[in-house]
Amino acid sequence: MSENPELAALVAACHWIGQKGWCPATGGNMSVRLDEDRCLISESGKDKGSLHQDDFLRVNIADNHVPSGRTPSAETGLHTLLYRRFASVGAVLHTHSVNATVLSRVEKSDALVLEGYEMQKSLQGQHTHLDRVAIPIFANDQDIPALAARVAAYADTQALRYGFLVRGHGLYCWGDDVAQARRHLEGLEFLFQCELQRRLLEAK
Ligand SMILES: [Zn+2]
C-alpha cells in the first residue's frame, strides 16, 4: 500500500483537515478509489489528523465487504454509493466542520444555494460568480443505508456535483482525485464561511 501516491496524498489531506479543525473528536471519514471494484476508507474511531496509511481499509464498492474483517467508518455506505454511481469519482472527503454543521441547520430548504462568489470557480466546471451552485441538504439519519438510498434517489433525477450536506452533521465532497476533492473541500468551506457571515451581518 505504501506505493500508492493517491493514498499518500489522502493521508496528507487528512492531516491538513485535522489542522483546520474540520474533523474534531474522530469525526468524519475519508476514502480513495483503488480501481473499479475497490476503495480504501478510514478505519472507524481514528483521529483524522493523525492517520497513517495502514489506518485505511480495503472495501468492496459493490457490497461494502471488508476482506480484512476490520471495522471501517460507519458511513462507508455513502462513500461506496458515490464510487458506484460516478465512475469519475476518485476520492471522497467527509468532514464535520462548524460552518457546514450550522449552515445546514440554518438553511431550511433542501439546498444551500451559492451565488455571487468568485470562489465558486474553485469547483470544477464553474467559470463565473454569476451561476447558481446548489448544494443539496439531506436530513441526517443514523441509518446509513436509508440515507444512501435517499442520496441515490436524488441522483436519479438531478445532477449531484461537488458535494452534499447532511443536516446538523457535515459535508460530503469529492473529486476525480485527492487533489481535486481537496480543492472542492477548501472552496466549499470558504464559501460556507462567507455565506454564514453574510447571513449573520444581514440579520442585524
Ligand atoms: Zn459524519
TrEMBL record:
Pfam families: Aldolase_II. Pathway: Amino-acid biosynthesis; L-methionine biosynthesis via salvage pathway; L-methionine from S-methyl-5-thio-alpha-D-ribose 1-phosphate: step 2/6. Its EC number is 4.2.1.109. SMART domains: Aldolase_II. Keywords: Amino-acid biosynthesis, Lyase, Metal-binding, Methionine biosynthesis, Zinc. Zn(2+) binds at H94, H96. Its cofactor is Zn(2+). Binds 1 zinc ion per subunit. It comes from the Bacteria. Residues 8-196 form the Class II aldolase/adducin N-terminal domain. It catalyses: 5-(methylsulfanyl)-D-ribulose 1-phosphate = 5-methylsulfanyl-2,3-dioxopentyl phosphate + H2O. One of its GO terms (molecular function) is methylthioribulose 1-phosphate dehydratase activity. InterPro entries: Aldolase_II/adducin_N, Aldolase_II/adducin_N_sf, MethylthioRu-1-P_deHdtase_MtnB. It is an enzyme of class 4 (lyase). Gene3D superfamilies: Class II aldolase/adducin N-terminal domain. Catalyzes the dehydration of methylthioribulose-1-phosphate (MTRu-1-P) into 2,3-diketo-5-methylthiopentyl-1-phosphate (DK-MTP-1-P). Belongs to the aldolase class II family. MtnB subfamily. NCBIfam families: PRK09220.1, salvage_mtnB. This is Methylthioribulose-1-phosphate dehydratase.
